[in-house]
Specification:
Elements (H helix, E strand, L loop, with lengths): L2 E4 L4 E3 L9 E5 L4 E5 L5 E5 L2 H13 L1 H11 L2
Antiparallel strand pairs: 1-2, 2-3, 3-4, 4-5
Length: 75
């Protein structure tokens, strides 16, 4: 599970050969969630609001990078 980025409140990562819909994983020490790459909504699990907002903001600013990784990893 490659780490994409370590932020202040969470870690964002993607799995190789992961399932659709396109998404990324958000982990905190106590919780985990999956965020849809198209809508930036949590589709599974939960993290605190601070971590969710941080992940969403980072993802929106780095959406091209995330889509590139999704394409690379989902081959």
């Amino acid at each position: 599970m490659p780490v994409v980025v370590r932020l202040q409140y969470c870690v964002i990562h993607m799995y190789f050969d992961d399932h659709n819909p396109p998404h990324f994983h958000i982990d905190t020490p106590d919780m985990g969630a999956v965020m849809d790459l198209r809508t930036f909504e949590v589709i599974e699990g939960s993290v605190d609001r601070r971590a969710e907002a941080e992940a969403r903001d980072w993802a929106k600013a780095n959406v091209d990078r995330l889509w590139g990784l999704w394409e690379e990893y989902s081959r």
